[in-house]
Task: structure prediction
Amino acid sequence: MRWWSAANLMSNLGTWMQLTVQNLLVLQLTGSAAATGLSLSVQAAPGLVFGLLGGAAVDRWPRKVTAAVSQATLALVAFATAALVAFGMLNVTLLLVLAGITGLIATVDGPATSLLGNDLVPEEDVPSAIALGSVVHSVGRLAGTALAAVGIAAIGTAGAYAVNGLSFLFVTAVIPFLRPARHAREAAARAAEQPEDTRGGLSFFLSRRSLVALAVIAAVSAVLGRNYQLTLATLVTGPMHGGAGAYGLVSTLLAVGGIVGAVLAGRLRKPTVRLVALLAAAGAVFQMVAGLSPVMGMLLLMVVPMAVVESVCDTATNTVLQTDPPAHMRGRVLGVWRSVSTGWGLAGPPLLGLLVQGAGERGALVLGGAVIVAVIGAGLLAQRRRAVRRAASVPPVRPVLVPEAAYQAAA
Result:
């Protein structure tokens, strides 16, 4: 697990460095912010369309082989991009094609690498492994974005892509030496002995009320409560009259809170959908208080708990997704999740932007938080009513009357 975490950190550093360099490269080639946004959408779009197929492939293919091949393929794409940049042959069309290929490979690589990490620890430590993955992702995002500027100055754009390719190869080289824990080996043996489950990931997902509830919570939170890069940026630079430095401080506190939350989430042993709902509601309340903050100091006090709760909620969500379904369906469940989360990830920022324009910077935070709390409250109330009806429908246990003669015979 230590080797896997080190390799995963290297991969995350390279990925975020390349993504930052890619945005700068598109701006250099086109001078258009819209084109930059298009490149990000092209890379995310395969997750929306092919997430189901990618998850199904992960369930059917050997996990270590799948992860190794996907990482090696991502390395080839990174090296190809580096060569095109070095020889001056890269244009916007090629860059968009390569971004789309990267997104397509990620539909298999994402669930494969996530589930592979869980296979390396005892079953009771899987929540901690998922939390460790969240920490690695957060640190990789921060450090990779910071290293992008240094990398461009030191080794150029082509060198930054080549470094990312090497990070993928490092993961590929580590995978053959990983040894799954006993529970993972036993689950693989049971899956091989059982007839193949032909149910699609979407039908299975929709049949699990807990997973549907998780998707509703995540969707409403993502659209109305998680895009702090937009809502807090407009709040800080608008009504609070802060500059780039103030927003940079807010962004740093969000990142620190995210790492702290991921570390705290490692203590969760068996998170539930109800816990996710309560955490999402708490985050929405913090968001409403932040929107009403009269001064910058109060906003800064709210930012850290907002990020901590969001991080713990995300880790708990990932734990439920990766442990609640049976082992032979987890890849398909993650594939469904990738599709639906990509959908609200693409639709969320424009919708939230319209809300900011209509309700104002503070109104968007307060109204969005209120809607999140209302939706979660309605869901919890409906769950409670179902539990009451279920309890009422169970017939009472009647005592069995034994005749006195039977007692005497027994005596």
